[in-house]
Each structure stands twice: as structure tokens, then as C-alpha cells.
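ARCHIVE CARD
SHELF: 3
SLOT: left
DATA:
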Amino acid sequence: MMISSLSRAVAAEFAPETAYLNTSSCGLLPRRTVDAVRALVESNATGRRADAGDFGAVGRARDGFARLAGVDAGRVAVGSSVTVHVGLIAGSLPAGAEVLAPEGEFSSVTSPFAVRGDLRMRYVPLAELAGAVRPGTALVAFSSVQSADGRIADLEAVRAAAAAHGARTLLDATQSAGWLPLDAGAYDYTVAGGYKFMLCPRGTSFLTVTEDAQRSLPPAFAGWVAAEDPWNNLYEPVRRLAADARRYDEPPAFLSYHGAEHSLALLNEIGVDTLRAHATGLAARFRTGLAGLGHEAVPGDTAVVAAPGLGDRAPDLERAGVMVSDRAGNLRAAFHLYNTEADVDRALDVLSG
């Protein structure tokens, strides 16, 4: 998409009232998404429909994520949170299995395994993750982009190491899906929360499972929506589960998914490459500006910028209308479609003061 076309698309969908650099916490909703949610709220409030929402919208959201993830929609399950998806995977591991994760990994990726109490958890620095995979490792669980500081994992090296030692892989793409290319078929499992870089309402999340991994992943949360023929499985246990990843579906939060289909459609219209160039270009401008102020940001070609030791400046920035976050002592800024060079310069002006 050309820059002029991108500008027109953004102007039609977003009107932020702040310099909003906090997508790593929560993305802004496009206008088309807001309109879809509002329409469902009104129909639910006035009794103009016979049910709570449209499974067609859920299917279109599934299709939209599948396009971003580079897989067939039959490989995608929908849910409400990354933690629930990871909990399903954690419950499938045998007692004593080793789970390898980076130090400082986001809690949703590690806690479902750790709270079991009968798994062997091992943590290593992110840069050493690939080299730490060993024959006894059952699963490598990690994020493509770290929440605390925006570092990008060496995805190819981790996949190769896991394959060499017979370990499965679980990738959390919550901080990258939409701006960083995702090949979900390269991992046994991927999970992604929709409410950050995918600009969906909170309550949308996606799980992909390879055909091989499905053989060892019991559909422990199966309800009627996971049936091959849902409407004929409303009463008594489900007789036949869906043949594809839909067997892992949770009952959808319709308000969220009515919006999600439109957010994901927008991202697919814009394209990952266009968004990546825009967001990482602004991030690079911010890193350069920080260096000019004497603050070295965590290096990397990523849309998420972290400045160590500046986390306590987040309240100052917020008072000045610049929304960022404080994570692990880092000042964290994340860039998306609705950000401009003026947003970057506004943040730098506040920090220079």
C-alpha cells in the first residue's frame, strides 16, 4: 500500500486524542470495529435478533487471523485469552516433562505450566534459548517479541534446535502479529491475543495447532461449539468433535468477535509489510532521539522500543498527552498505524524537559 493510501485509510479509521504509543498494552479500535460492536450492542438491547451474535462473524475473524498467520483457517481455534490456550497445552504434558522458556517471559506463557507443580521448568536468557534446547526438553515456550523490552527472538534458530532434539514449540505472537510476518505452520502451537497489535476488542485470542500436535492435545475444554455439527449437539455430551482445530474453540464473546472481523480485515488490507515499515520506521526515529538525549534504548528492528531506567517517566508523559507504559523499569513505547513522526517528537520533547 502506498503512503498516501495508508494515510487515507488511517484517517478514515482512527482519530486519537493523544500521542498514543501504548499498543503493547492495548491497541486502538478502528472506526469500523467500533461501529460493528455498537450495532450488536443495540440489537441485543432492543431484541432485534434471536441470539447473542453471529457465528459468521467468528468465522470471518478466524479467516482474517489465518491470513495473517499464513495457515488454513482449519488450523485456527478461537478463544478469549492466551492464558486459556496455554493452559490447554500445559494440561496435555506428562508429569515430569521439561518446559524451556526465556527469563522474564510474559506470565501468560509460563504460569499455566509452572502452577501445575509437576513439570520441570527451566529458564535461560533469551539470547541463549536455542542453545539451551536439549534431548530431554519437551516444549520450548516463548514470545516472538518480548513484552518487557521488545526484543525479537531468534525464531529460526529456536525452531531448528527444537526440531533437532524432538521438542515441540509454542510461540506467543501477541506482541508481533500484524506487524511482524508470522508463519504459524512452523510451530506446533501459536497463540496470539487480539487486543494489542491486531486492534481487536479484548476477549479475542487465537490458537493454531499443527495436525501432528493435535494428536497429543486433548480438547479438554470442549463444549457444543467444538462439535462437528454444533447445533445438533446442544444436549448431552458432544457425539463428534470438529475434525479440525475448531475442536479447541471456546464459546465466543460475540461483541469482541463482531469487532475483530473488521479489525483483522483492515490489517489484511494494509498488509504486514506496510505496517512493519511504518511502525519500525517510527521506532527507529524514537531510538535515535533517545540516544540524542543520552538514553540508549534496547537495540533491535522492532516496533516496540524500551528505554531502560526511564519507566518512572511514564506519568510525566501521560500528563503531557503521550501514552506509554512502564514495564520492568523500562519506558516502553509501541508504534502502529495511527502513529506519526509528530507523536515521536512530542514524546522526545517531554523527555528532554
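SLOT: right
DATA:
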Amino acid sequence: MKGPFGVQINDSVYANEGDLGHNEFLEAFIEFIESKGWQFGGGTAQIDASGERADDCD
């Protein structure tokens, strides 16, 4: 096997209280990724409680 190797994420993130806006999450996520010297390539979308795509709430 040859690298580089990475991690694929297929899941959902929710706030403990209230809504988690798409832009709010993405800004914090990218800040975390960049603070580690990593890169993110992929897509994100706002979803509702049942996991269905929804209009961005922020």
C-alpha cells in the first residue's frame, strides 16, 4: 500500500442544545483542520433531525 493516507468521514454532527448552523460548523471545522496543518476535500450539507438535506439555517 502506498500513501498518502487520509480519513473519510460519513456521519452527522448535532449541537447538544439548539441548532447547529452549516456555516458555523464549517468555519469551526476548517479552523480545526488547518490548525493541524491538514487539508479537507469534500462536501458538507445542512440536514434536519431525520438526516434529510435542509436549507441552511444560518
